Amino acid sequence: MESVFEIIAEPNRRAILALLVSAEQSVGEIERRLRMPQPTVSKHLRVLREAGFVEATVDAQRRLYRLRPEPLQELDAWLAPFRRFWSAHVDALERHLDRMHAAPGTKKSRSRQ
Amino acid sequence: MESVFEIIAEPNRRAILALLVSAEQSVGEIERRLRMPQPTVSKHLRVLREAGFVEATVDAQRRLYRLRPEPLQELDAWLAPFRRFWSAHVDALERHLDRMHAAPGTKKSRSRQ
DNA sequence: CACGTATATTCCTTTCGAGGTATATACAAG
DNA sequence: CTTGTATATACCTCGAAAGGAATATACGTG
């Protein structure tokens, strides 16, 4: 389970991350809110911790988990080239629609090129 | 393999997507460029196709695969809340550094609260 | 139609990760 | 020191997905 991508492939882990985005939570709180067995929560938290997605501070017997930004930023960076791609795509669509609007009756106007 | 996240968890699939971001490619081209056995390429392309990441057009015996934006946009949308989180984080860090700069000698200035 | 090329599919095997149950560890309080 | 609470870990089992090898399908050409 090397990569950021594998880490967030697991739905329960994504749920935990989504929960932590608002505020830090103890294991028990996560357990209750997500209705997830405690060992499951602990195991996923371990994975998230070792991958740098979360960090914990000790408060008596509790551990308070909070989000760390780096791995998600890495994911964001991975998306960058594709973002360029799809904005180009939207532009192309807009131009296409513009052309259709400019020349309305041209039924078989020429697909491709 | 339901989710977008599971699809991109596989490194070879990410490589294929990265390759297609510049231009459409035939299966053979992908095979050569990524030095991947042909059945492997075809199987990953199937997964990507069924998940809507790519589409193919037929050109004689070749199939030309190209990227589709939607699933990656979905991923981008999932990231949005976290983006808000980490920009807040950066802001907090900046404010913190500003304060340190303003009051330099205050060694044990008060952790927490 | 036979053949070559391009791609898809099938079958098999192996690996890995997730969940469940039980148990260990850590801390607080009486 | 015993008990209760909070969290972590160990062990086991199961399913799913990836890779390899072989084969099927589709198309073009002589």
Distance between termini of chain A? 44 Å
Q: Strand fraction band of chain A?
A: 5-15%
Order of helices and strands of chain A: HHEHHEEH
Name of the level-1 CATH class of the largest domain in chain A:
Mainly Alpha
Question: Main β-sheet of chain A, in a few words?
Answer: 3 strands, antiparallel
CATH superfamily of the largest domain in chain A: Winged helix-like DNA-binding domain superfamily/Winged helix DNA-binding domain
Please indicate the count of domains of chain A. Answer: 2
Task: Give the strand order of the largest sheet of chain A, numbering strands 1, 2, ... along the chain.
Answer: 1-3-2
Helix content estimate of chain A: 55-70%
Instruction: Outline the low-pLDDT stretches of chain A.
Output: 105-113
